[in-house]
Amino acid sequence: PAACIWATRRQLDLLSDLAEQGVNTTSDNAAAVAAADVVVISVKPQMMRETLEALQPALQSRQPLLVSVAAGIDAAALERWGGGTLAVIRSMPNTPSLLKRGACGLFANANVSSEQKNLAEQIMGAVGITLWCEQETGIDQVIAVSGSGPAYFFLMMEKMIEAGVALGMDPDSARELTLQTALGAAEMAKQTGVEPAELRRRVTSPGGTTEQAILSFERDQLGSTVEKAMTACRDRAVEMTALLCKE
């Protein structure tokens, strides 16, 4: 129920739509934490330490489940900055969560109970699918696959639209066909349960038009390019943790 939710932001006017729905709104983080069983903290990684250290008295008094939505901040740092001995879950959702089509990786520290894990899964599951990581390093892998993943597909769409225009198609048609094709391909893979590699084979007739495009991708080592890009993404997440989580 909306009355059981608190939302905080420095600029209260930006929460007016939530207030109209009955959500409690405030610019006082400590007041919100004092009323919470679960605290979802969604600030930029560079702001996390300052935010949590200011909340130490409230967090230690209330002992809520702390759910972080920030890349590069490990569970140990979150617990330490919150004053110690806290149940902490790291989550890594992605932007399609805005449309309830998100994908979210979760990792729980040793202080998290089964009930708290279920709560976190319910919260994040409201906007997409959830997947638990047994090891915290799994969160960095989630970042590389689904956290940053939407940008990879947006880039592919962008380049397909540009190529369509270069082939002589008008921009609106190129955009509409590209986006619908991306949507249809994702839905087909999701709903049929058939592996993408097999779906690709079914579309690729020997000696046909699609085969020529696929062969071009393979000559340009698309697979290696994708793997290198995702490895660079993962490595940056590891670097951020080393940089931001210093004592």
Explained architecture:
The chain contains twelve helices and seven strands. The protein is an alpha/beta fold and 247 residues long. The radius of gyration is 22 Å and the shape is elongated. It starts with 5 loop residues before the first strand and ends with a helix. The model has no long low-confidence stretch (mean pLDDT 96).
Q: What's the quick description here?
A:
With 247 residues, this protein is of the alpha/beta class. It is built from twelve helices and seven strands.
Shape: elongated
Strand tally, please? Answer: 7
Extract low-pLDDT stretches: none
How far do the termini sit from each other? 39 Å
The class by helix and strand makeup works out as alpha/beta
What is the alpha-carbon Rg in Å? Answer: 22 Å
Residues in β-strands, percent: 5-15%
What percent of residues adopt helix (DSSP H or I)?
A: 55-70%
**Could you give a short account of the major beta sheet?**
5 strands, mixed
Oligomer: single chain
Going across the biggest sheet, name each strand in turn.
3-4-5-6-7
Number of helices: 12
What is the average per-residue confidence, as pLDDT, rounded to a whole number? Answer: 96
The arrangement of helices and strands along the chain is: EHEHEHHEHEEHEHHHHHH
